[in-house]
Amino acid sequence: MEEVEKIVLPFVIALVGSQALFGFAQFIIQFLVTRADMKQNFGKKLDDLNNKVDRNQAILCRTHILRFSDEIRNHGAEFHSEESYRQQIIDCDTYDAYCRDHPDFSNGLTIIASKFIRDEFERLYKERRKENDNQ
């Protein structure tokens, strides 16, 4: 019986050990696959969120452009500071860039308003520079 134990016992230990090792290896592989899937899903969700933020920023710029254009039409160009005009020009550039990069986005809604803002800014601040030069 001792001889059988000496032969069988190491074999049983080796068999159990290999099963445990195989189970552990399966666990590690499944963990890594699940983790990779989670990273990929997280990356996609993050990209989707960034796209929504960019789209909302473009819509906000469009709203600013249209509102500012209406304000200077209704209240006069002098109503706003040079800094306000510069911010609106930044909004125009941001909106135009987004539209260029996203052809499926509603475009062409601010063309007249953007040109009006730029023209009024140029006219107003040319006049102000002339006034300052004459003083």
Short structural description:
The protein has 135 residues and is mainly alpha-helical.
Secondary structure layout:
Blueprint: H1 2-75, H2 82-101, H3 111-134
Helix pairs in contact: 1-2, 1-3, 2-3
Describe this structure in words.
With 135 residues, the chain is mainly alpha-helical. It is built from 3 helices and no strands. It has helices at 2-75, 82-101, 111-134.
Could you tell me the radius of gyration in angstroms?
34 Å
What is the count of DSSP helices, taking H or I runs of 4+ residues? 3
Instruction: Average the pLDDT over all residues and give the rounded result.
Output: 84
How many individual domains?
Answer: 1
Instruction: Tell me the distance between the termini.
Output: 118 Å
By secondary-structure content and strand pairing, the structural class works out as mainly alpha
Share of residues in strands? under 5%
Q: Specify the helix fraction band.
A: over 70%
General shape = rod-shaped
User: Any low-confidence stretches, pLDDT <50, length ≥5?
Assistant: none
The overall strand count is: 0
The main sheet comes to: none
Order of helices and strands: HHH
What features would you highlight for this structure?
mainly alpha, 135 residues
